[in-house]
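Table S4 entry, NAD(P)-dependent oxidoreductase.
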Amino acid sequence: MTILVTGGTGLVGSRLLRRFADAGVDCRALVRPGKDVPAGATPVEGDLLHADSLKQAVEGVSAIVHLAAVFRTQNEDDIWRANLDGTKNLIAAAKAHAPQARFVMASTGLVYDADASHPGREEDATHPKLAYPASKIAAEKELRNSGLNWSILRLGFVYGDGDGHLAAVPALATRFKWHPARTFSLVHQRDVARVVELALTGVMDGRIVNICDDAPTTLYEMASLVGSPVEPSAEPLTNPWMGRMDGSRLRGLGFQLTVPTVYQAVQQGIL
Ligand SMILES: NC(=O)c1ccc[n+]([C@@H]2O[C@H](COP(=O)([O-])OP(=O)(O)OC[C@H]3O[C@@H](n4cnc5c(N)ncnc54)[C@H](OP(=O)(O)O)[C@@H]3O)[C@@H](O)[C@H]2O)c1
């Protein structure tokens, strides 16, 4: 069984590939020209934006784990191009050259509405305004209507294994003026990899699944954990549900977290 991973040079993909290599899984990684080859995978040069480059990446694979995306930029055109057009190209390549392959796509918990009245659930109607979540919802729709064997993982804020992601939060908070009580559903890299493994068994086929741990955490707490406290605020948070995801569907599939809270990650030294 060969698995194609896109986004293998990214925060999530590089850690996933290392874990899969340690477990003896045969992985290919789609790598853009000039980029470093991720450890633990056979590189296949290609670019989501160049449809013709994807045939050799998908041919012969039994599963595709599509992590590649653009979202750490203010350039909305780049975001839409990579996340929607790039995903469309990958879907077309899979339909043409690997129609039996299981197609697992990473999406985001940011798709849920800011005025939600409960933690975001997979069946909620969503109306994201920002380019990143809107492009992910559009890509989700393409995949759901593709006729492929799909599953969609809506990831919470991923952190851990030295990825530096949590440490970036205080600067983001200052830049975007986030309220210190703004809450994030989190998930450790270790559990993301285990969820992808589970998705590859087929139990998530045809489903959207929220991927998050047991303890939504405030920005204030996250910043304190990485040693860069943010200013407290006496102003109430507009909507305390914003940013929270409901993880019960994942639990219902039998998944057990190995890192249920960020505090456990701190104790174990795996931030
Ligand atoms: N990290 C999180 O907290 C988080 C939370 C929710 C959802 N997610 C989702 O999880 C996935 C992985 O996130 P991440 O944090 O690992 O992202 P990341 O660190 O920004 O990595 C993005 C990856 O996408 C690749 N990529 C971008 N455009 C491409 C293109 N045109 N062709 C081929 N590859 C391309 C990049 O390759 P280059 O090295 O060539 O640029 C890189 O490997 C994304 O789908 C994201 O939406 C992440």
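Residues 6-13, 30, 32, 35, 47-49, 67-72, 82, 86, 106, 108, 155, 157-158, 165 surround NAP (CB under 6 Å).
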